[in-house]
Amino acid sequence: MKKTFKLTHPTTKVPRLVEAIKYEVKKYLKRERRKDLPKGADFWDFDCRMGVDEESSEVVHVYDINKSIDQAELKQLESFYLEILAKPGHRIKKPGKSSE
């Protein structure tokens, strides 16, 4: 998903737009996680970027997307860019843990 969301609308208030955006992001993540995993992958991981526009977007962790959307609302931005790309993830064992 590569999309620019607008936080202005002639009839809809900003808090309602923010909730609709959060719902759309949640729905997209859920849909991507339902897809079949490639062989050898353990889970779906996501590369996320967010900013005022595509050029100024910064890397954001998937769990911080809602916080970033709230920050955009507090800054009273007219729009923001959000990019979420799914990729296969692989679990790594933590060092120092032994199963004896």
Describe it for me?
- With 100 residues, the chain is an alpha+beta fold.
- It has one domain.
- It is 31% helix and 28% strand.
- The chain has 2 helices and 4 strands.
- It has a 4-stranded antiparallel β-sheet, with helices on one face.
- The longest helix has 21 residues.
- The chain starts with a strand and ends in an 11-residue tail after the last strand.
- The model has no long low-confidence stretch (mean pLDDT 94).
Poorly predicted spans: none
**Overall number of structural domains:** 1
The termini sit apart by 44 Å
Query: Fraction of residues in helices?
Result: 25-40%
Q: Number of DSSP helices?
A: 2
Sum up the overall morphology in one term: elongated
- Give the mean pLDDT: 94
Largest beta-sheet details: 4 strands, antiparallel
Oligomer: single chain
Structural class call reads alpha+beta
Number of strands: 4
Estimated share of beta-strand residues: 25-35%
Q: If you compute it from the alpha carbons, what radius of gyration comes out, rounded to the nearest whole angstrom?
A: 17 Å
Q: What is the H/E order?
A: EHEEHE
Strand arrangement, major sheet: 1-4-2-3
